[in-house]
Design a protein that fits this description.
The complex is a heterodimer of chains A (72) and B (679). With 72 residues, chain A is an all-alpha fold. Chain A has two helices and no strands. Chain A is 71% helix and 0% strand. In chain B, helix 1 crosses helix 9, helix 3 crosses helix 14 and helix 4 crosses helix 16. The chains are: A mainly alpha (72), B mainly alpha (679).
């Protein structure tokens, strides 16, 4: 069966990366972040998503390798 | 402010990526769908963490998300009882005591268990009522989603279907387009990947919601100045709830200062001291026992997730894993509502609770009502009622309406429209959560949070559709219509009925959106059907003497009891009729003629007491009829279906800390601690 952690990890990595890039792009624009109390939320939260996505992919990769090693 | 949102390219991109991945998962799973067991039960091969998160996601539909935030504003922290009292104990009970019978018996669905334990009649009753409920539940989800998208996305998707033969056309608006597109996406991935698709996307939805809403709650809490300031502002709300338009029908002017921030103290002081208007017994027995156990332990929508687990211990761990996020969810879904109430009472940055939006269809009637009232020089109150009725809104600001009426002769339709919407003061509790999302999210985060909402609406539909197609195929089609056909035939039927189920949901979504009472009726019927059900299961699973006559007539009697209870009782401030007391209505009486003992302080209290009565009736009837009738099933037939006749599951192979009973006790202890902290 398809390991759910692959698509899930990939999706959150992509979305996280997009938010990080967008967050850097708009970093110095105070108007964009007026609503989020001045916090550069896209960058910080994008990093969280990226980390989450990457760890899911990592787990899936590790589980896949372990399963392959287990079978002769 | 709510309703006026501008999405950037980045937001659309996040939305699109989610849809792509969901469809991709469906297509990737297609090659694993080889038999009906794969399609309806995921081949019983899913690891526990996935079934556990899907279990909680199936319950955390969008309605829960939007509803809980609204109730958080209206009732404060007491709403957490729906989690700490109304969910955790029942989930632990399901895992420890009931899962062995669901997973261990040959039953493929909850109604099928009823057939094995009792007979065809009980199964038939249960499967038909369940099938109807799932269709309506998914319709309600889709209706809300289509409405949300129409207010949030700015594409004009209206078009006209030409009918060359008749020479006319059917005009369709954006609502229709969103409804059909989203249903289409759900259809594709459920058709391709069956239950597995639904379960996988539910897990995806779970993380979307947690990761999309956590920053919003964080920003909101920071904005109101942290928990201490939040408590202070909510004390103001408690002192004068009418300022925010809460509880205007209640006789009392205000509540104690902790009414919004203490979970138990206001409850123990009695119905008139807490905004919910309930007493502790109704809360503990009606919600905590009857409604909660009835939902979590017998509803196939959630139980199906656990039954897809790869083995018995994974199945039993499913509700336990789900209980952890369930316990913490109030921070994500109820807290935003409390934040909104605090923001509104302090009017920070001009925030107010979102107001009901007048539907496009109601405007023509509203505009002509305004013109008429202005022409006839109707007095304030008469005009208010007349216009309110025309636009379908109960509360309008008299001052703003007076200005509008004064200016009406010189205004064009568009200006009257704006003026009418501006005069609405009725709270739209369903929009509380979106009002916060749009207040705090810059582009980027906005896309993430909205995608979380979209995800939960769509998986709400997918979850219901997968439960529907399983019950239809196994419990109605295979049981009563076409028996003994090949597995491939039933899988084909499953796919066909998926299409039919989604079609029916779309039809019902139109019903719900066009006919205001539909929603009330649906909830009413849910209540009638669900309330007594747990008594049947409890007796069936734990008392081998329960007979099939007892079960069937007990269940029927319990359902009739709830209907009768509802016909006789009502809640303060309601008009007799669909919200209760229609029997009095038929006798030509009004609220003031009805004896006071059948008038409950709130809808919620009425609902909890209804559940308590229905359960007791079903329990008593089943007990008595079982004693009076003869058993039709021998001890041998009931092996694996009844507690005393089933060998206990052996757990020696498991580490002690992974045993369901141990995990269950830990969870219950955690729940007690939470209740203590927010006492």
């Amino acid at each position: 069966m398809l390991d759910l952690r692959w698509p899930m990890g990939l999706m959150f990595s992509v979305v996280g990366a997009m938010m990080v890039v967008y967050g850097l792009w708009t970093f110095s624009d105070d108007k964009v972040y007026a609503c989020s109390l001045g916090i550069r939320i896209n960058l910080w939260w994008g990093l969280v998503l990226l980390l989450f996505g990457a760890s899911m992919v990592g787990l899936a990769w590790w589980a896949g390798r372990k399963a392959k090693d287990g079978k002769p | 402010m709510a309703g006026v949102v501008s999405l950037g390219h980045i937001d659309y991109a996040i939305l699109a990526i989610y849809v792509l991945f969901v469809l991709g998962i469906g297509f990737a799973l297609k090659r694993f769908m080889k038999s009906s067991t794969d399609f309806f039960m995921s081949g019983r091969s899913i690891p526990a963490w996935i079934t556990g998160l899907a279990f909680i996601s199936a319950n955390l539909g969008a309605l829960e998300l939007v509803g809980m935030a609204g109730s958080g504003a209206k009732y404060g922290i007491a709403q957490c009882h729906f989690y700490w009292v109304g969910a955790i104990p029942a989930m632990v009970f399901l895992a420890v005591f009931m899962m062995p019978f669901y997973y261990g018996s040959k039953a493929r669905s909850v109604p099928e268990y009823l057939k094995l334990r009792f007979d065809e009649r009980t199964r038939c009753l249960n499967s038909i009522s369940f099938a109807v409920m799932t269709v309506f539940a998914s319709a309600v989800s889709m209706n809300a989603l289509a409405k949300l998208l129409t207010t949030v996305l700015k594409f004009d998707l209206s078009f006209t279907i030409r009918l060359p033969l008749v020479g006319g056309g059917i005009p369709l608006g954006s609502y229709d387009a969103y409804l059909w597109i989203c249903s289409g996406i759900v259809l594709v991935y459920v058709l391709k990947g069956g239950l597995t698709s639904a379960i996988y996307t539910e897990v995806l939805q779970f993380f979307m919601i947690v990761l999309g809403f956590a920053p919003v709650v964080y920003l909101g809490l920071k904005d109101v100045g942290g928990w201490t300031h939040l408590k202070g502002s909510l004390a103001e709300v408690a002192a004068n709830p009418a300022v925010l338009g809460f509880h205007q029908s209640a006789d009392k002017a205000g509540f104690a200062s902790n009414a919004w921030t203490s979970a138990w103290q206001p409850l123990l002081e009695g119905p008139s001291h807490n905004p919910m208007g309930v007493d502790w017994f109704a809360m503990a027995f009606g919600l905590g026992f009857v409604l909660s156990f009835g939902y979590w332990c017998t509803n196939f929508l959630v139980v199906q997730r656990a039954m897809a687990a790869r083995n018995m211990s994974a199945a039993r761990r499913t509700p336990l894993i789900a209980a952890v996020p369930k316990m913490l969810f109030p921070a994500l879904v109820i807290l935003p509502g409390m934040i909104a109430a605090a923001l509104a009472v302090t009017a920070k940055d001009g925030y107010h609770l979102p107001h009901t939006r007048i539907s496009e269809r109601a405007y023509p009637a509203g505009i002509s009502a305004v013109r008429e009232a202005a022409g006839q020089d109707l007095g304030g109150k008469a005009a208010l009622e007349k216009i309110g009725e025309a636009v379908g809104v109960k509360e309008l600001s008299p001052a703003k309406l007076a200005v509008l009426l004064h200016d009406a002769p010189t205004l064009d339709d568009e200006a009257i429209k704006t003026g009418l919407q501006d005069a609405v003061t009725e709270n739209d509790y369903d929009n509380v959560i979106t009002s916060l999302v749009t207040k705090y999210c810059p582009p980027g985060l906005l896309g993430l949070a909205l995608t979380g909402l979209l995800a939960s609406f769509m998986s709400g539909m997918a979850g219901n559709v997968t439960a529907f197609n399983t019950v239809w195929t196994y419990d109605i089609y295979q049981a009563y219509m076409v028996r003994n056909r090949s597995d491939a035939h039933y899988m084909w039927m499953g796919r066909v009925v998926t299409v039919v189920g989604i079609g029916l949901s779309i039809l019902c979504a139109y019903l719900v959106s066009n006919w205001k009472n539909a929603m009330d009726i649906i909830q009413l019927v849910f209540g009638f059907v669900n309330a007594p059900l747990f008594a049947t299961f409890l007796l069936g699973m734990f008392w081998k003497r329960t007979t099939s006559h007892g079960a069937f007539f007990g269940l029927l009697g319990g359902t009739l009891t709830s209907a009768l209870f509802h016909a006789l009782t009502t809640a303060t401030g309601n008009v007799l009729g669909i919200k209760g007391g229609y029997l009095w209505c038929l006798l030509g009486k009004t609220l003031s003629d009805v004896p006071q003992r059948v008038v409950f302080p709130s809808d919620m209290a009425q609902n909890f007491w209804l559940a308590a009565f229905a359960f007791t009736a079903c329990f008593g009837l089943t007990l008595v009829i079982s004693v009076l009738t003869r058993r039709t099933k021998t001890d041998d037939d009931l092996r694996g279906l009844v507690y005393s006749l089933t060998p206990k599951a052996r757990e020696e192979g498991q580490a002690w800390y992974l045993r369901p009973a141990v995990l269950g006790i830990v969870l219950l202890a955690g729940c007690v601690v939470l209740n203590y902290i927010f006492w």
